[in-house]
């Protein structure tokens, strides 16, 4: 049985839950391996809409074990708020396990995140202010706090004291904020310890044993390829490894256990936050696409920047992730356009680029080279077979498949988890 890595192939918000929905009851484990509550995704089940932030989408699949891996940064207050909200709606969250090696977000991480963004002014990154970046920075500086530290208050206090030695200098001397005491941080974090303890596990060992006995495991990436800290549009990126390779470091499962990589793309493109976005639409055109697609952040409510499908981005995602299958979402949003532009390349200073330019400067100056495709007016939301789609919609999907570097195995035609056209089995069967 396979291990499948599921990644966003653009700038996030592609609808990664769609792919998990298609796999449905065939999935035994869903693992979140990077990021924190700085992103989210919406899953629609019947007439119910669920906004998930920190929890893996497998939390909504009966019998599936959701796992928060070691590559995630966990804000305990957000975790339990989300669990309580789902439990109140009848969702069983009792199977959730959390890696002992996942790092914690403390109150000072959120404070530093917010004041740093304000300090940067026009050079801001566009973070969500939820402490993600500072928590990852502490991890790399080896002054981070881990979930397992909640099991030993003495060690937790020592680590908090060490972290605040540097953080308080920054807060007081640079940002003119009050110093944070060790006691207030420890008291806050320890208030979650008893509730967290039963969830804490050696998730690397548990996942390896699950694969050994033939379980199907999906590794669900947060954010997306173009926001990856190494391979995205740096510095306008997230603070973790959002590409497929991050599934291994963020879960403790080795690369030779991964069978398939599924990349999720919108039939157009969106981006939240600062940074380059070559196909971005301004004015009325951008607002029309935003309203059509309901493009407002699941976590922040921020309006997303909108643009046309970007082939160089898709090809780049296919290459750096080793994509075996694409899931193309929100095809229904394009219904009613007379023609649909697709960026098939970039022009940078008179030079055509069919692949992503190498430098930040060239990406910043990239002008899309568009090819126009015929649109359609027919409703696609009821389609369940590829042949049910209007001919123009079929041609659009086939063109994107040819241009993007991997087969398009699933096409999303509406927000509900059942509204999918499945062309190929994502498990490769």
TrEMBL record:
Its EC number is 6.3.4.4. Homodimer. Pathway: Purine metabolism; AMP biosynthesis via de novo pathway; AMP from IMP: step 1/2. The active site is at 13 (proton acceptor), 41 (proton donor), 139. GTP binds at residues 12-18, 40-42, 304, 330-332, 412-414. Its cofactor is Mg(2+). Pfam families: Adenylsucc_synt (PF00709). GO terms for cellular component: cytoplasm. IMP binds at residues 13-16, 38-41, 128, 142, 223, 238, 302. This is Adenylosuccinate synthetase. It catalyses: IMP + L-aspartate + GTP = N(6)-(1,2-dicarboxyethyl)-AMP + GDP + phosphate + 2 H(+). Mg(2+) binds at residues 13, 40. One of its GO terms (biological process) is IMP metabolic process. Binds 1 Mg(2+) ion per subunit. GO terms for molecular function: adenylosuccinate synthase activity; GTP binding; magnesium ion binding. Belongs to the adenylosuccinate synthetase family. InterPro entries: Adenylosuccin_syn_GTP-bd (IPR018220), Adenylosuccin_syn_Lys_AS (IPR033128), Adenylosuccinate_synth_dom1 (IPR042109), Adenylosuccinate_synth_dom2 (IPR042110), Adenylosuccinate_synth_dom3 (IPR042111), Adenylosuccinate_synthetase (IPR001114), P-loop_NTPase (IPR027417). Plays an important role in the de novo pathway of purine nucleotide biosynthesis. Catalyzes the first committed step in the biosynthesis of AMP from IMP. Keywords: Cytoplasm, GTP-binding, Ligase, Magnesium, Metal-binding, Nucleotide-binding, Purine biosynthesis. It is an enzyme of class 6 (ligase). Substrate binds at residues 298-304. It comes from uncultured Quadrisphaera sp. It is found in: Cytoplasm. PROSITE patterns: ADENYLOSUCCIN_SYN_1 (PS01266), ADENYLOSUCCIN_SYN_2 (PS00513).
């Amino acid at each position: 049985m396979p291990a499948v890595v599921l990644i966003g192939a653009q700038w996030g918000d592609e609808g990664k839950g769609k792919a998990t929905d298609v796999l449905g009851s065939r999935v035994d484990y869903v693992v979140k391996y990077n990021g924190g509550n700085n992103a989210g995704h919406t899953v629609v089940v019947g007439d119910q809409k669920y906004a998930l932030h920190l929890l893996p989408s497998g939390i909504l699949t009966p019998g599936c074990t959701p796992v928060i891996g070691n590559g995630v940064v966990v804000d305990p207050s957000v975790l339990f708020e989300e669990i309580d909200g789902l439990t109140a709606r009848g969702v069983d969250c009792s199977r959730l396990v959390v890696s002992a090696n996942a790092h914690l977000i403390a109150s000072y991480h959120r404070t530093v995140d917010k004041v740093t963004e304000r300090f940067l002014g026009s050079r801001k990154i566009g973070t969500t202010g939820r402490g993600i970046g500072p928590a990852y920075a502490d991890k790399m500086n080896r002054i981070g706090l881990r979930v397992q530290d909640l099991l030993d208050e003495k060690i937790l206090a020592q680590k908090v004291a060490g972290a605040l030695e540097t953080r308080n200098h920054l807060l007081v001397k640079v940002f003119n904020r009050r110093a944070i005491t060790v006691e207030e941080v420890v008291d806050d974090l320890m208030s979650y310890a008893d509730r967290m303890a039963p969830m804490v596990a050696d998730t690397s060992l548990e996942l390896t044993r699950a694969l050994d006995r033939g379980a199907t495991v999906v590794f669900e990436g947060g954010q997306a390829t173009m926001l990856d800290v190494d391979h995205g549009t740096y510095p306008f990126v997230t603070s973790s490894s959002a590409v497929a390779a991050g599934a291994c470091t963020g879960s403790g499962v080795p690369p030779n256990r991964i069978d398939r990589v599924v990349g999720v793309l919108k039939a157009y493109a969106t981006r939240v936050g600062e940074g380059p976005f070559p196909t971005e639409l301004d004015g009325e055109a951008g607002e029309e696409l935003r309203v059509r697609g309901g493009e407002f952040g699941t976590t922040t409510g921020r309006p997303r920047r909108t643009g046309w499908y970007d082939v160089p981005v898709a090809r780049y995602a296919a290459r750096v992730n080793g994509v075996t299958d694409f899931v193309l979402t929100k095809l229904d949003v394009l219904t009613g356009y007379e023609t649909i532009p697709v960026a098939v390349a970039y022009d940078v200073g008179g030079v055509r680029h069919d692949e992503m330019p190498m430098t930040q400067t060239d990406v910043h100056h990239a002008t899309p080279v568009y090819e126009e495709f015929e649109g359609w007016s027919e409703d696609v939301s009821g389609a369940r077979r590829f042949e049910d789609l209007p001919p123009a919609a079929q041609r659009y999907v086939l063109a994107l498949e040819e241009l993007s570097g991997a087969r398009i195995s699933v096409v999303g035609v509406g927000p509900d988890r059942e509204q999918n056209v499945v062309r190929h089995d994502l498990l490769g069967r």
